Amino acid sequence: MSALQYEHDALMSEHTYEAPQIEAGRRLHGGFDPDGQYISPRMKVRGPALEAWIHALRERGGDLMDTDSSLLAGIRYPSAAQSKLLLKEGLGQSFWNTLTITGHIEARGRVLAEMEFPDFQAVVNEDIGTMALGHLHKGLLESHGLDEGGEPGRGIGGHDEMWFALRDLAFGEVDYPEPVVPENIARPDAEDPPASIQEPYAGIVRFLLNLLLIEFRAERAFALAETLLRDPDLFSDRRAEAEHAAVLVDRIRQDETVHIESLRLYLGEIRQVELKSADGGSLPGSQVVDEYWGSLVHWATVEQPRLVAEQQRKLMTERISEHPEAARVQQAFDALEETVAPGA
């Protein structure tokens, strides 16, 4: 077996941890080395394998898909300043809901460990046996799914339970009702352009692109969560717990960095190969990826933000109306609305 080919069990293997990760009474994935440094789960072989595949892709003249979370650097609603105001005014339910919803959405990611992915070789002209692309169904997507949704059967939580744990650290016991979790945060399939390669392989490309966009959105949410948790003006009665909650956010970020790099690798490999077209011919993978990506980015940066802002504005107004000084808080809240994207 070469350094570019791996079996399922190897890609799923774990490091030997000096101590497990246990937070807020929850057994979580990963663990710690003898120096107390956090180690992401299932990285003993997966980590070196990803490095090897990236090196091989670049040796062939390709590279990771050229994109990052900065493409979502638009106006945020509510803004970081608005979120801080709500917390200072005793309206913490909005941030609590955000952390809770994030945990539930992460739990859905476990579907990656349960889905049966067809061998992508069937639609690629080149041999992909030594590419990451040839290992999607051999543990790569499964490990991604377990990172997100954990292993409930073994009593080990993934990012879902990590978000619940850090929420509980920061807020302690509260009586907020469970929030409504959006049914779908990816773009509806009906809005996708017509497939130029056969299904289900076109669906896999769309799935990977949507997943990458979701990871970018999560990456930007991490920054807001950490900012609020580390703000010395907030959580004054649970300052130490909030600081530790921010540490958990950073551990999740460490895990998710692997996911983003992996997805950029898979898509970079697809962009470099020749795909079998639906009409029996062939076409460059870059054509398929870029066509879907352009349409998806337009939805994520133009259409969806407007809809989300409208929904959030209505929700925030309803929540502020419950404050005894609603008019004052609403005026201050509106004054903090972003009109220019952060960093613009």
Task: Note the main attributes of this structure.
two-stranded antiparallel sheet, 344 residues, 52% helix, three-stranded antiparallel beta sheet, single chain, mainly alpha, 5 strands, 11 helices
Give a verbal description of the structure.
This protein has 344 residues and is mainly alpha-helical. It has one domain. It is built from 11 helices and 5 strands. The strands form 2 sheets. It has a 3-stranded antiparallel sheet with strand order 1-2-3, covered by helices on one side. A two-stranded antiparallel sheet has the order 4-5. β1 (19-23) and β2 form a beta hairpin. α9 packs antiparallel against α10 (285-320). The longest helix is centred in the last third of the chain and has 36 residues, at 285-320. It is globular and about 65 Å long. It starts with 7 loop residues before the first helix and ends in a 9-residue tail after the last helix. The mean pLDDT is 93.
Please specify the SSE layout and strand pairing.
Elements: H1 8-11, E1 19-23, E2 26-32, E3 38-39, H2 46-59, H3 80-88, H4 93-108, H5 111-114, H6 140-149, H7 159-171, H8 201-230, H9 239-272, E4 274-276, E5 282-284, H10 285-320, H11 326-335
Antiparallel strand pairs: 1-2, 2-3, 4-5
